Amino acid sequence: SLGRFGFPVVLKADSLAAGKGVLICADRAEAEDALDSVMLRRDFGSAGDELVIEECFVGWETSIIGITDGTSFLPFLPAKDHKRAGDGDTGPNTGGMGVIAPHPLVDGNVMKDIQENIINPTLAGLQKEKLEYAGFLFIGVMVTPRGAKTLEYNVRMGDPEAQALLPLLSGDLNKYLEAALEGRLADVKPRWRGGASCCIVAASGGYPRNYKTGFPIKGISDAEKTGCRVYCAGVREDRDSGFLSAGGRVLGVTALGETLDDARALAYRGIDCIRFQNSWYRRDIGLS
Question: What is d(CA 25, CA 10) in angstroms, rounded to the nearest whole number?
Fold first, then answer.
């Protein structure tokens, strides 16, 4: 099966793997090592009981998130996630090391392609199968030389996409959700602030593989004083020690700006204030 699609090839754990279950293998040697890691070494636990082998799309990704009432889709701004652990999009996949919004490459033509060839067929499929669903719909999209292709669906907002998108929303999110539940989503339009946002994730040393937790987190209030928003993820609060790291992706720092460069500069100024043992974050969010 490995040779069916040629190389590179994509291997996916056929269950939930915290956003890390996709392995892109450049050649047979990498693919066989990935098979060993998932099926024998059990790096993803029971999520790797079955493995899906897929064609590798070549292009650039965007996260298309919005709300549906089953017949209409209300898109949020297109976002760009940074899935790889290392700068320059190197290293293993993660749950997401940072996001910018709006995606600078998603123009009207790209959105038209996504609407006509992904969103509309998705809604038609829901209706054909009589699946009554109202709520968030996340579509991972790869834009290739042959057009936009679907990578994945999630029935939730993305993480850390939500931390970048929601601060740009100037309308009332509850009204959009109510419209979806009442089947009148086609009658509303979201309102957005101008400018851009940038979210940077600080992670525990060793993530996305083995890592230690329980380290005191310092500088959150200093980061907020710069004008950034700090969203805690893998964090717990101790009565004596304050905030402690408690996960792989520990927190996200989000900044808004008139331009992406402004938002990015402020986000890095904010995250530079935060310290915990063995913490790390990518230095190229919004550049790659």
Answer: 6
